[in-house]
Amino acid sequence: MAEEVKAHITGTVWKIEVEVGDEVEEDDEVVILESMKMEMPVEAPCDGVIKEIHVEEGDAVDEDEVLMIIEES
To answer: Which CDD domains match (predicted)?
Structure first.
């Protein structure tokens, strides 16, 4: 089953901490968003493997936009 990782704020993708194929555990930091000069980490909602990354560093994102897909393990 796949789980979407969504932006919890409107901002800019400052840093992507993972690559497709990486294994992550629930609550691992996968993306850092920047909003109003504050860094806001986005965490994995489940254990699994990164299947898709839908953004690149520097992209502007809206709240609830899908950033990546994790295939649950």
So the answer is: biotinyl_domain
Whether 46 and 3 have beta carbons less than 8 Å apart is answered as yes
Chain segment 1-22, per-residue pLDDT in tens: 999 999 999 999 999 999 999 9
Per domain, the residue ranges of the chain are 2-72
CB–CB of 50/20 below 8 Å?
yes
The architecture CATH gives domain 2-72: Beta Barrel (2.40)
Q: How confident is the model at residue 73 (pLDDT cuts 50, 70, 90)?
A: confident
Alpha-carbon distance of 56 to 71, in angstroms, equals 20
Residues of the chain with pLDDT > 90, as a percent, come to 99
